[in-house]
Amino acid sequence: MVAELPKNQVKRRTLVILAALVASFAIPICAATSVSVDVQVSWTILPFQSLTLAGSNSWGEEVTVRVDFPQPTAADLSVGFIEIRGALSLVARSNIPWVVKVRAMESDLGTSYDGTFTKPLHNFLLRANSGHYFTLANYDQIIIEGQPGVHPITIDYKILFDQVTHRAGNYGVTLVYTITTR
């Protein structure tokens, strides 16, 4: 025979069991919400610049080009120059402000066939994107500058001739174009 518990003890046991059940569910929930994690993510975007010949797959910070001059016609000699528009197409790519510089590798443009005339470097002019022509030198000169992005650059050449002093010869120059930060 099973003895019955008084009503107040049954209520007390029921409350204790209920409290134990609530506590067993509440402790993991409270414990899970009291844990916090701080995560910090950072990265650095490094400066990137490249200069390429338009249509080329190779890129770098420098492009070297050899320019051999055509022999001037009588008409070229009468106007005093040969102008070659769109002689070179470059593409500047950069994620920071940039400048493109140019310099000649040689100190002159070559010698006449007979060896009596050396064509001076200042007889070669160039410009970028239809800007103003400037005289080439054998030190870096800024020819164009720009903001981040991809920028096509069209280079025009002008070779000056003096009708009196000009002598036929193999004239040309090696140019080095370089992209750098401003």
Mind explaining what this structure looks like?
The protein has about 180 residues and is α+β, with helices and mostly antiparallel strands. Helices cover about 20% and strands about 40% of the residues. It contains two helices and eleven strands, in the order H-E-E-H-E-E-E-E-E-E-E-E-E. The protein has a five-stranded antiparallel β-sheet. Strands 2-11-4-9 form a four-stranded antiparallel β-sheet, with no helix packed on it. The radius of gyration is 39 Å and the shape is rod-shaped. The relative contact order is 0.23. The mean pLDDT is about 85.
Keywords summarizing the entry:
41% strand; 11 strands; alpha+beta; single chain; 182 residues; Immunoglobulin-like; 19% helix; 4-stranded antiparallel sheet
Write the layout of secondary structure elements.
Elements: H1 7-34, E1 49-53, E2 62-68, H2 74-79, E3 81-94, E4 98-104, E5 108-111, E6 118-120, E7 124-128, E8 134-135, E9 141-146, E10 149-160, E11 172-181
Antiparallel strand pairs: 1-3, 2-11, 3-10, 4-9, 4-11, 5-6, 7-8, 7-10
